[in-house]
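Ticket #280: bound-state structure for C2E.
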Amino acid sequence: AKEAGRNGYRCYDVSMRERAVRVLKIQRGLQTAVEDGSLSLHFQPKHHGDTGALVGAEALLRWCHPELGAVSPLEFISVAERSGQIGRLGEWVIREACRQLRDWHDRGLSTVRIAINLSPLQIQQPGLVEVAAGIVGAAGLQTSQIMFEVTESMAMRDAERTTAILRDFRAHGFDFAIDDFGTGYSSLAYLQKFQVRQLKIDQFFVQALDEGGHEPRAIIAAIIDLAHTLGMEVVAEGVEKPAQAEVLRALGCDQVQGYLLARPMPAAEFERCCLSGEVA
Ligand code: C2E
Ligand code: CA
Ligand code: CA
Ligand code: CA
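RESOLUTION: The complex was predicted; output attached.
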């Protein structure tokens, strides 16, 4: 409070410095994360909009830094993108998701299609589709058992290029979802060209349903209509309240995901709560 001006600047310097130190720690930690067992995947169920039945799961990356503790994927993934570490990290996610799916299969548990998030830089890496198909094949799985999620803003940034990349993935049998839909600026022509399987309505719209106004509901209804017209399924994420789920069901939303139904959870918990055993 004293010497507000000067201290203001000094505070700014200090926090900039702290920020830089944190980024360096994250960057250094990531160098060994793939080998040292500090990474893991959590799984969040995707449920049928009407019946609530399990129809899939989204893999969400978790990282416990030895000193910083749990770091949000939003933070460490953007660091990994800037430091050129995203390739290795993203490959680990695909490999681990396939290993887990294989393990469930081998133990006679019911399995579901797993959705994996791809970061903007990652999907532009040449050869990613071959790497992914190779990992899936080596695990003895089909590419149809894995799908990928890319954000609307990433997909539309260079829509021509995205169209080509998605075509390549589709040729290998992989499906896609457009994530965080409604927050970017979609070209309807490209949305049709992408030929993705799912649109995921951004949580923002789902949570806005709470305010009770007519608008969020009308926007969601319009997205669902659009998606169905284009032959896509709609997933609503961030469903936290029964009233939200109620509106989504009334509007014919195909799948729902959110804390109301289940939080992202470690594999062992996901098995217990969501997968049934074919073998006793
Ligand atoms: P996202 O793909 O949009 O994932 C949804 C986020 O919402 C997840 O946060 C999830 O835990 C959270 N969530 C799920 N249900 C609810 C709910 O009912 N309410 C609220 N408030 N939140 C809910 P998380 O796990 O922290 O992941 C954040 C973001 O990090 C993801 O957003 C995704 O963009 C990125 N991410 C996570 N794992 C990976 C990964 O393996 N690779 C890449 N490239 N990005 C990842
Ligand atoms: Ca996602
Ligand atoms: Ca999302
Ligand atoms: Ca998001």
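RESOLUTION NOTES: The mean pLDDT is 93.
TICKET STATUS: resolved
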